[in-house]
Amino acid sequence: MPRPTSAREAVWSIRLKREIDEILEKEAKKRGISKNDLVKSIILDWAYRNGYNKVLHFNFRNTTITLWDFLLNQTVDITYTGDKRLFCEHCRTHNCGHVYYAVTSIPEVARKVRRGEIRVD
Ligand SMILES: [Zn+2]
Which of 25, 59, 21, 44 minimizes the C-alpha distance to 90? Predict the structure, then answer.
């Protein structure tokens, strides 16, 4: 059962096979984020792909797309990198729910993907 810590947060403990924990540890290290933030990023990715998350606002200026993440309750910046890919500054990866949202739901970004100006992994 989640243990409430505040009106907005719940703390869970979870049992994982050691192998899964090691995979998460490795990926978190690779991204330079905590394992806790990695798991949140993975859950948000799932939420985006399954219609549970939404973006209230976005901005596309120069090389940065700014999203308002409803579940995180904060802005998330996605950077257009030199290799024609999008990098999420929050999740520290090219492949997360925010990038997924940007390429599938922002018409200007989707157009750039179709024209090959943005590469999707
Ligand atoms: Zn992200």
Answer: 44
- Does residue 8 form part of some domain? no
CA of 95 to the centre of ligand 1 (A): 7
The rounded distance, in Å, linking the Cα atoms of 118 and 121 is 10
Domain that holds residue 57: 14-114
Domain count, the chain: 1
* Residue 82 within a domain: yes
Centre of ligand 1 from the C-alpha of residue 73, in Å: 13
Cα-to-centroid distance, 19 and ligand 1 (Å): 24
2 pLDDT higher than 70: no
| CA 41 – ligand 1 centroid, Å | 6
15 CA distance to ligand 1 middle (Å) = 25
- At 73 the pLDDT is 86
Structure pTM? 0.81
Which tens digit of pLDDT belongs to each residue from 5-53? Answer: 567 788 989 999 999 999 999 999 999 999 999 999 999 999 988 988 7
Q: Cα dist. 77→11, 16, 21, 69 in Å?
A: 26, 31, 28, 10
Residue 101 C-alpha to ligand 1 middle, in angstroms? Answer: 9
